[in-house]
Specification:
With 414 residues, the protein is of the alpha+beta class. It has a 6-stranded mixed β-sheet with strand order 12-15-16-17-19-18, sandwiched between helices. Strands 1-6-5-11-10 form a 5-stranded mixed β-sheet. Strands 2-4-3 form a 3-stranded antiparallel β-sheet, covered by helices on one side. It is built from 11 helices and 19 strands.
Length: 414
Amino acid sequence: MAINTKTITENSTCVIDDRYVIHLESILNKNPKLPINLIENTIYFDDYTIGEFRLDDLGIKITPRNKAFNLVTFFQILQYLDQPLLKELPGFGFNETQSLFDINSLSSSFCILLDNLLQYGMTGQYNYISEKSMSLNGEIVFDSYIPQLLPFDGIETKSIFYSNNSVSNQIIKSALLKLILIENSSVNPEKYQILREFDFVDDNVFSLIEVDECRLNFFSPNPYYAIALELSKKILFNFKLEYKDGNIEWLAFLENSNTIFEKYILKILQINISSHNFEKWDKPKTFAKLKTQFKVGEKSYSPDILINFNKRKSCASAILDVKNKKFEPSKTSNISNLVSTSDIYQLMFYCKQLNTNVGGLIYPSSTTNKPVELEVETEGSLKIFLISINIHDNIEDRHRKLVDDVINVIFANT
């Protein structure tokens, strides 16, 4: 079935034909957690949603509005959140110019990655097999050794053998099989050749817990396994779909770019500056209440990153807010447009609530930039800095630069 594709930008809407409306309403009623709303003929995706949504023969691709991101950086970030990389891992298979977070691009990249994995060499596991025989075929199991029964049952022995039929390879094969079900046979046909390399690997079904356990405990000298298992997890559990009459009725591969970027910045600082405490509240804090005769409402706030938060005194050394917005000082003719007034007000409020005079706004960028100091005309000595992380730089250098900037401009002023 040919797909009629529409491409929109993150935080925008999509108008669909009448013939899709009733079907989509039914899907949303059954799947209320999908980040999608439908009003008449217009689809509204939740803020910061990127990815792809397919409905019958309609495909909607949502590209990141921030051009600093592409597929390679996106999956580097996802992998880092689960298992921080100490060094750059080459050969992800992503095209640096790709900005689409769609299924076909991911499938193509997955296949390139698996080709690299296979060229490096598959990693298996050692297995044990016990059997009773009249001849010795391995190590004797003395716990079950009963001389009187030897003429009848034989002797139990335990043998060790190495096999590529491991849980990790079964997970990867499961992801490959799902891609084959999703994609047309003419799309990324190399996955069929790769699948033949997994003929000796059992078909299996895994839960999310089982996949996570394998990812955390599995070790291989092959550097491609870490990201292969990460992408397998995305394919198995982040591709939401339903079938009808043997065909895919709908499919969703949707991510929140804002949430992922916030977690990424927090993780970098927690790992690389262990002498200070970086955290985000589990729940927002109430700062105001609305009261009428019959009702009471609350307004709350939650900064992205609090540094050295003191719960008893309700204060922090500094506040950082992460903004998934364009930040390109070298490409901006009017420097006043680097930061919005609302973002400044928001950070000023956070600093006042938490009794600190130092705050920072952290942005993704496609260039390397020095921190920009924002002189705020207000009472007190509030200092705000605009800090960026060059997403196009290699992962070690961009982390080091961010850490240095936070130390040199945030901690130097606390």
